[in-house]
């Protein structure tokens, strides 16, 4: 078992192939400040190419919240991007340029979860407010505890979120009427509603149960060919955004290398003989 | 309270910020003729930039129908686009040109609901047939009364609708098998099925209840920053149609002006002090 | 009644306008080998322009399986694309070229179901594993028997499927978390789960009932204007993949010819007089 | 011969089928103010569907300039979009909203030249500065007099043009290095350079000669099938912006109506018998 | 030396790796009828995967014409797609469907030149009218004899071409003003103009010289790694139609197999030692 | 004057606002190894946001070459990506993954020139082979000395370049026939041909003259509003890749912040009074 302690994250590998990433600001209910999202990128970029990891479980530390979203204390402080100091640049085009540079980096940090080559299973519990939605919508599989309270809160601080949730939500669930409802009103919704609308794929009684289920899925994934699992993730994200024809053409280009893998005969032999296969690191 | 009477619509502002648009052809069950869709565009274009409006409730007058769709009497009359007079232009390319010019304008009229900068909550009840689906699928939030009967009827008059529903339906609900089923068969579906498939986001017992719920949502929206609410609507419609990467890039470009708004400090202060904020007109 | 016996398919026309296509390898549980997918294309290309056909029911023969997917015996045999002979071309770029040519043809075979101008109703029962998902996701309407077991199995043989399911699944159901779950784990899911997630639009007690329901839908479709029904299919598939604006522009271009059809007055007259219309062949 | 005098334009039809549109602010060197671009849209929207017009020649009145671009006096006046009054809305998001509404309308006015169904031949002479480039790049064919001085001037007043030239220029000429050069430096270029880079397709000694050549082309176009000519314009503009595959699919959809035209046998008969054909109005 | 005689084409392999395809209707000036374009597809589909071919030279037989385009005798005959028999289907939607099926196949035949995996060098001479432009714009390199007369003739028979030239021309040359000019007027242009505008890349004095130059290029290409040459062709056609970012992503996916080729060390060794490399068949 | 010495680059600021970036491996004719492209990204990322820089001149040190492209010694060494060690990973899918990670980073390094917010003027001289084309095609303006020899060499080492040139070349010049010619044959072309085809926008007698011209352009650019100049660069690169409609929509979103800049009144006042304006840093 290894554990790596970042400033705001704890990354634990307690069983082969599975990394557990926890947001680790328990006393702040895992509220998010710039240092958090910058470090988040480092965490997921590292896991992306770490050959000893085949699946990631992503959760928030403590009992009360996955995350309450952006740290309002930070955001409302003079000097934050949302509250410039009187002596800050006042030319709107120059302020826009500063905001854009920060914002693009912010987007890239959130997107590092989606870009992570390994599957990411996000476990939600307690409060999952505002930026929590941006974070978890960039993960692959979302499951939650019964007590989870979700919301797309940014609208209540005068902002249309531009870091992920509004770009991903129309593609993550089916009912566009519901998407507009929760994104424009910023209202809370609970685990049952999240499940009914397809935002999460299962509900477990407690955070502990949800983590257990996430590890069960992660274990399952880590026993399969990492070439196949990671390519499936990439193909789905690529095709979600494109025509079926473009998706097919890209997949074929990509797969002409991937299906030359030795994992296929290994997997087929194992399947036929009903044994657990062993795959080389990736 | 103000009320504006168009020929086929009634637009009422009975409380601050909320406009109620009603199709007003009760005796025809709100059947639609060209004058209706042309006027619809005028109505929504005006509301789009009216600074005294922050949310729109859209419904059909009378107890029996949101709308029975296109007025079959008009459509089947000699001289309509579907039934040319014997002495009308007979060159198929020239008839096509006439049909295209009319059709493009028709599309723009329906799309004026989507383009309206303010959120539009559509309340459905009774019959909601044929073109009713084109209209409501261009709105943001759909809720309905228990008695609503829906259908995508055009196929039964020999037409594949080209004014909205077939372009929007695959993006409005999740089950593509269901989309194909109702759009190819033109069969009726009721409120429960509409809710289960995500076409509407809630069902209320009666039209009156549904209108009450729509006003409750509208009131909620109108208390928030209009900059934030209207930008959320625009971002979702933009991203629904594009890759996540394109969505993120556009949102950042757009938001560099919008997040310079004074609404953000106003909203944050209100949120922290738990008071209702007041926002400048937009 | 006509019946056409292909090597691996049976195509029966037992009532006007409706073709029944059955995969006909009962003893192999309809497992799929290259001859099957090549013939599949011939079957659907023929039906696409056969004027005596207005709807297609697509199912698997026998009681035990729609299809168990790719024939593992074939796939694991030396000399298959997944298991090259030691003396086969070993230059990876040359092997890639061979794989691409085969793969592109394979994709086209599956896509022939989607490209078939006539609506295709797929009836699933028993095992519907692996490539079964590629096949049925290219059909228009999916219904299933209570006993159906589905899975996106390819990942278990070390492959990210590149022939259809991963390009279509994100667009066929609403919950992207569920899509990632079933596609990355390859786990089984049953009829109820398939219905709840929108992958099928109805469940019937038995295969026989499901076939009955499919024929009921097919009969309904075949009584309508074939111009309208086939155009609806095409518009939905086109719009699923594009912006609403692109969808609307294309539909208008396409429809300027289609709405000059005589089917419209015929259909309107029938609708008003409540009689069953008769439409010319297409 | 007919002549229609708008406030800022003169539209003359001095021979069958050909409309001559002139910017008519000679004493201001055809400098452009909001009234000009709003009226421009009216002019081109009317010509677009006028059945007595088959080609449009577009030029600037007077000897000295096609147009010197935006009227700097207007632009620099307090209260213009570029120079808000101290008591104007100061919230940057609200000012952005006002600018966007104006700007989108401004774009639509320029684009009315491209959207005009009839071919537009633009004749340039003398000064063709700043917004002149936005205007002429939306036309179909550009020819110029020897004395023409071009530039993409907006950069010199601190603006990256957002009304057309920067969206169209990369698609109007071949050398992207040249595009960047003239658009970033705002430097002048003359007729010879414009021809060498492909921005104009021919140079004539004088404005009068250039107008003569434009009328010669217009006359040629007006003797052909208007169905064919107008469809060619539309196909090229559609395909310029899309993949070859998308272009081909759209063209086929569009043409299934257009090639049913009687103009084809009329044109073929004329071609074979070497007589001038006569085509019905469009 | 091998020679394969099709009905309307002659395909000669007179030196290693290079196929010479000639349209072989000399007495008709290589005018094109449906049999020609259907056979064209067969010719290029066969060459595409023929491992003994690495480059294709494409020309027209005889001294007078590459091709005069569509055979007007055929096109104007009663019963052709452009001149239906009085007793042909008269429902415009049904005629449209027939035209679309024919047209899509026609497009695919032309596109087989672009889809051919091997580079195609088109040699033009004499008349190169109408459909000749559709054919040669789908080739990779165009060179011509001094005497070549080009035109995009379709507009003169009342048709906006929908089989290739209007989808490709905006991407084949730089000056969009020139594109509009030649495509809307259908006027002739000569070799010098074609070279100046970039439509051809070189002019040779005679057809014989031009063929010589084409063989010189083909020989050069056939001495290089076929993996590299064919991938370059594919990458350029893919990127021409997409954003730079999409192009780069696709190329990387495709190349992960291709740059594992043994051709790279072979080519590098040859380059360093200045010897001619030998590459395995592809 | 400041000078920053990187390992492989020299960055000099010898006059206000203008950075001169030189590839600094003179003795290797500026041949490129991985350290070079990684450092290139650092150089351009730093310049991108350096407020004291408004234009970048990019050239190669020494008299003989801008760059001879990839260092063949490095590329052919055992252990390079093109020549794996016998004991390297042999599973083709795993090698593909390694190659993709390296390749994506390589692409990002080249693209840092295009992403650099400041205009980049590339001065070419002597040999400009292979990867030199990838580098300079990502710059904004290309000018060259009379003696420059260009080629797209990668094909001669068995590779279809996937790091930039094949994605950008179809959009950088007009003649697609010429693009295919030089990219498939890898043949040399000289300054005159580069100018004629639009690959460079001017030729100067010597490297020194070309540098002088580049500084003249850079000086011109640096006297303008940096808001305007940098936005023009961004708009052109965005629009090059998208439909005109998408380009216009994005530009308007972006500009609602940028045209609130105080640079506009400053620039207009200067223009009217014919004085040189002074703009705030960006």
Automatic annotation (TrEMBL), chains A, B, C, D, E, F:
Subcellular location per the Swiss-Prot or TrEMBL entry: Peroxisome
Signal peptide: none
Protein name: ClpP/crotonase-like domain-containing protein
Organism: Penicillium fimorum
Gene3D superfamilies in the record: 2-enoyl-CoA Hydratase, Chain A, domain 1, Lyase 2-enoyl-coa Hydratase, Chain A, domain 2
Listed PANTHER family: DELTA(3,5)-DELTA(2,4)-DIENOYL-COA ISOMERASE, MITOCHONDRIAL, ENOYL-COA HYDRATASE
InterPro entries linked: ClpP/crotonase-like_dom_sf (IPR029045), Ech1-like (IPR045002), Enoyl-CoA_hydra/iso (IPR001753), Enoyl-CoA_hydra_C (IPR014748)
Entry keywords, A to Z: Acetylation, Fatty acid metabolism, Isomerase, Lipid metabolism, Peroxisome
Pathway(s) served: Lipid metabolism; fatty acid beta-oxidation
A biological process from GO: fatty acid metabolic process
Gene Ontology terms: cellular component: mitochondrion; peroxisome
GO MF term set: delta(3,5)-delta(2,4)-dienoyl-CoA isomerase activity
Ranges annotated as spanning the membrane: none
Lineage of producing organism: Eukaryota, Fungi, Dikarya, Ascomycota, Pezizomycotina
Alphabetized Pfam families for the sequence: ECH_1
Domain of life according to the entry: Eukaryota
Family: Belongs to the enoyl-CoA hydratase/isomerase family.
């Amino acid at each position: 078992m290894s554990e790596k302690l970042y400033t705001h994250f704890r990354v634990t590998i307690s069983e082969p192939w599975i990394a557990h990433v926890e947001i680790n600001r328990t006393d702040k209910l895992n509220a998010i400040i710039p240092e958090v999202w910058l470090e988040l990128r480092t965490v997921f970029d590292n896991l992306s190419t770490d050959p000893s990891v085949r699946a990631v479980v992503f959760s928030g530390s403590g009992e009360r919240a996955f995350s309450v979203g952006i740290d309002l204390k930070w955001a409302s402080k003079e000097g934050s991007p949302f509250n410039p100091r009187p002596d800050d640049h006042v030319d709107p085009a120059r302020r826009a340029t500063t905001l854009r540079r920060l914002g693009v980096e912010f987007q890239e940090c959130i997107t590092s979860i989606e870009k992570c080559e390994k599957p990411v299973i996000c476990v939600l519990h307690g409060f999952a407010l505002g930026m929590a939605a941006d974070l978890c919508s960039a993960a692959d599989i979302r499951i939650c505890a019964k007590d989870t309270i979700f919301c797309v809160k940014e609208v209540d601080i005068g902002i249309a979120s531009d870091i992920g949730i509004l770009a991903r939500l129309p593609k993550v669930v089916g009912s566009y009427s519901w998407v507009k409802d929760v994104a424009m009103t910023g209202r809370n919704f609970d685990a049952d509603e999240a499940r009914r609308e397809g935002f999460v794929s299962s509900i477990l009684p407690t955070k502990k149960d949800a983590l257990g289920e996430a590890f069960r899925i992660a274990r399952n994934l880590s026993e399969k060919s990492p070439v196949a699992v990671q390519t499936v993730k990439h193909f789905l994200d690529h095709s979600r955004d494109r025509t079926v024809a473009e998706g097919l053409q890209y997949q074929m280009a990509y797969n002409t290398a991937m299906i030359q893998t030795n994992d296929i005969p290994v997997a087929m032999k194992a399947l036929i003989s009903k044994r657990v296969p062993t795959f080389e690191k990736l």
